[in-house]
Amino acid sequence: MGTVTLDNLRKEFDNGQIVAVDDVSLDVANGEFITVVGPSGCGKSTTLRMLAGLESPTSGRITIDDEDVTDVHARRRDVAMVFQNYALYPHKTVRQNMAFGLRMSTDLSKEERNERVRETAEMMGIEDLLDDKPNELSGGQKQRVALGRAIVREPDVFLFDEPLSNLDAKLRTTMRTEIQRLQNDLATTSIYVTHDQEEAMTMGDRIVILKDGELQQVGKPKDVYENP
Ligand code: ADP
Ligand code: ADP
User: Where is this protein found (predicted)?
Assistant: First the structure.
């Protein structure tokens, strides 16, 4: 399951002088792929960071499967985030990077964890990289590892923060297709932030357009495209 609800979500900085997210309400269905698009500074990252529990809202509510996870200390938050800069642990191998989150978030035995890491690495085509450190990998390989690290946990919700913007155009297209394929196979609810309108249009079941922290439009790509 992975139903996500944002209810009048608001985030202010600097004692209210900056309103990064301005009373955003949104329902995301289980298994849906939502893209969030808008120019730099419109509140995309702040929204994701609140969903990930990295930042507390000023007001409003976040629920996942009817459980209130608004507070950063909310106990259950079965989400995995994929970052633009990959955020891999530099001193750990690919295997350790992938297994680490698994150790924190599940009660699997060591053998089961190893098996899950191996299966996921195969799915992502990174099984030959398991003993490498991040600095031995190309950008595309790092992003595959970052995706693998999220997938291996089998979370209810994936959060993507501009995961492809550090890759060259060709690789970006390949990875787009790959993420869509994974999304189809895994049917995990996904919230995907990008400043690239074409990416948002091609990848999302629905698109959310943010402007100055406000939700400006929500709809299927075709409807948003035809009624800008
Ligand atoms: P985006 O991800 O769309 O580029 P952000 O969510 O990063 O937008 O930022 C939204 C607004 O909030 C911007 O004006 C940004 O400068 C501001 N902001 C984000 N984080 C902070 C912070 N920690 N302190 C002050 N202002 C912030
Ligand atoms: P993005 O463009 O992906 O939103 P940024 O580089 O804007 O990322 O933000 C990275 C970090 O800096 C975040 O933790 C964000 O909260 C913080 N940040 C962004 N804008 C400001 C700001 N004006 N003042 C303080 N911190 C900020």
Answer: Cell membrane
